[in-house]
Design a protein that fits this description.
4 strands, CHP04141, alpha/beta, Sporadically distributed protein, TIGR04141 family, four-stranded mixed sheet
């Protein structure tokens, strides 16, 4: 189960719009399974690297899968900014379990709040509206 995207800085990115806890629980489990698979399954590593080489030759990637970074991108209901106070209670526990397991495998975890703008619908990681979307 591969992540949704591979970022330009050797990040694996999983993104979800969440109206309720269930979507976030799924996101956290999906990221954990993806990282476990890439970290420990040689066949999955081989298939993943072949796909990256075919689709994005020269893409910077740790081919040993020892320095993985997983980014969870989350758009909460109604575009509410993601904070410890705005995250659903059960999702906090699910996230804690996922991060504990991921860090135990040597995976760095980043969490990014995605918000909507009236201009394009998304904001870039630098906080500017992206007019190309």
């Amino acid at each position: 189960m591969p992540p949704h995207r591979a970022g330009s800085r050797c990040q694996f990115i999983c993104v979800k719009k969440a109206e309720a806890t269930a979507e976030l629980n799924h996101l956290f489990a999906q990221g954990r399974v993806a990282m476990e698979t890439l970290r420990f399954d040689p066949e999955a590593q081989e298939k993943f690297l072949a796909k990256v080489d075919r689709l994005a030759p020269g893409h910077p990637l740790d081919r040993t899968f020892r320095s993985l970074t997983l980014v969870y991108g989350i758009l909460l209901k109604d575009g509410v900014p993601l904070t410890p106070a705005s995250l659903f209670a059960f999702a906090k526990v699910s996230l804690l379990h996922a991060v504990t397991a991921l860090e135990g495998m040597g995976v760095r975890v980043e969490i990014v709040s995605i918000s909507r703008t009236s201009v394009t619908g998304m904001v870039t990681s630098e906080g500017r509206a992206d007019a190309s979307s």
